């Protein structure tokens, strides 16, 4: 996380923004297309850069 003020998205938030299912994001994470960060509570978190990566995956 480069910028401390950077907004992080939960897997559900990212799924809604990208119009994909949570399961799709979990699969992409599993095969290494998209790597999440794990917060202190154990939740997967994504950055704005991950939205850009998803756009590249879909194009």
UniProtKB/TrEMBL annotation:
A molecular-function term among this protein's GO annotations: DNA-binding transcription factor activity
One Pfam assignment: MerR_1
Superkingdom of this protein's organism: Bacteria
Record-given protein name: HTH merR-type domain-containing protein
Family annotation (InterPro entries): DNA-bd_dom_put_sf, MerR-type_HTH_dom, MerR_fam
Species this protein is from: Sporolactobacillus putidus
Start and end residues of each HTH merR-type domain: 8-59
Entries under SUPFAM superfamilies matching the protein: Putative DNA-binding domain
Keyword Repressor: no
Keywords: DNA-binding
Keyword set includes Ribonucleoprotein: no
Gene3D superfamilies: 1.10.1660.10
């Amino acid at each position: 996380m480069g910028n401390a003020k950077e907004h992080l998205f939960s897997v559900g938030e990212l799924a809604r923004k990208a119009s994909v299912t949570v399961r799709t994001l979990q699969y992409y994470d599993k095969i290494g297309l998209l790597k999440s960060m794990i917060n202190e509570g154990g939740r997967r978190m994504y950055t704005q850069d991950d939205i850009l990566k998803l756009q590249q995956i879909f194009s």
